[in-house]
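The passage that follows is intended for readers who have already worked through the single-chain material. We present the inputs for a multi-component assembly, then the predicted structure in tokenized form, and finally a short commentary. You are encouraged to pause after the input and sketch how you expect the pieces to fit together before reading on.
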Amino acid sequence: DADVTQTPRNRITKTGKRIMLECSQTKGHDRMYWYRQDPGLGLRLIYYSFDVKDINKGEISDGYSVSRQAQAKFSLSLESAIPNQTALYFCATSDWDRGDGELFFGEGSRLTVL
Amino acid sequence: GQSLEQPSEVTAVEGAIVQINCTYQTSGFYGLSWYQQHDGGAPTFLSYNGLDGLEETGRFSSFLSRSDSYGYLLLQELQMKDSASYFCAVSPRDSWGKLQFGAGTQVVVTP
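Having made your guess, compare it with the prediction:
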């Protein structure tokens, strides 16, 4: 089993619908992240959490919300999806105390908003 | 704002050497990381430079010069499986614990 698991892997939805992407990890890391990837734009940080009681906005948080239900679970919600939120979404974790800048990514959730 | 610049695409033949440059416009950052991503799959960590100089891991090496806010990833003895996107990333000093990624370099290895 993967250390960082994302569900669903693929989702097609319509404008205005609420969507939740879920992420769970078995690595025991405190830090979790949600990134969005668009062609030619690299990975952009949406939200991040350094522990269960700590939630922070990233560079593109508008239109998104998150919930850290437990150390191992971090979900991303789109309250009212719009077409320009069509993208590949990645969850990641880190053990930042290692100091080596390593993130562990899930396999991604491809979201299409029609 | 802060940004990382890297070439969009590099093409090379099997067995060749490729250098992917990454420049970062900031007053300071903690370190430079490199990630590899195959065809929209999960990015995977390759290397980290916390200090200036060269880090070598098998066929891949990474270099950092803080004074120049510049680094590179060197891919040696290229193999077909090295065809992928490569991203540099930094953790800026004003936002410890977050990684900011470049747009990525597509490396195409030809026979």
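Commentary: The CA atoms of residues 16 and 80 of chain A lie 4 Å apart. Chain A touches chain B through 30 residues (CB under 8 Å). How closely did your sketch match?
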